[in-house]
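Narrative summary of target 7.
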Amino acid sequence: MLITVENLSFAYPRGEREALAGIGLKIAAGEFVGITGPAGAGKSTLLACLNGIIPNLQPGRLEGRVLLDGWEVGRQTVAQTAETVGTVLQDPESQLICADVEEEVTFGPRHAGCEEAETAERVEEALAMVGAAHLRRRTTASLSGGEKQRVAIAAALAMRPRVLVLDEPTAELDPVGTEEIFRVLGRLHRERGMTVIIAEQKTSHLARHAGRIMVLYAGRVLMDGAPRAVFARQKELSRVGVAVPPVARLAAGLGLAPGEELPLTVAEGENWVRRRLGR
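Modeled conformation, tokenized:
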């Protein structure tokens, strides 16, 4: 198993309650996992435990452990973990540190000690993977929100990680930028076999791309399963403040026939309506 989380609990200094409370889960290599839940559910804290920010940079009370390919994350430096886990934050401007795109993507491999030839190869590969080769000579300040996020993903990929962790990367993007980022993630997962773990509130996009949905609530895993099974539990999701994809909400409201699958995407919804009208 690529990632194993064992009885993980964490409380921030002077926190009124635990941000995580006894989390246990396993993630296999090549999975695309969507993590959702209301604000304060523990999504960002869990991701910070996966990439080593907790306990290395964030103080607090930690119990349990995270194993990454058999190695305990808490016993490695953040730089060591970054060789396996690439991280993309919600606000790309807080992550981009260089004035131009090429230098931004070059920064990680160069400071990890890669030779110039290998660094150049990694930069070219990473930009191509996210469809940003044409941005190479641009300044980071001149990019749109979606372009900045693509460059942030490329910078993480230049380290050639096995896992890509993203903390609400589309929160500040418009629908076009959001679609752009999910298209990139879907391609990385399908074509490169990348393990993708993304915390996200936009459940319609998670339903289309993720093979597994985890719902966090009050620091615990409330649900964990295939998207269709999770989004079928609409009353429970509504009670904890998790949005259900509109297509699924419509179909459930109109009523599903016995044995009929819950549609999640627009295409599935269209086919479902056509069949219903046909009957």
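The first helix runs from residue 43 to 50.
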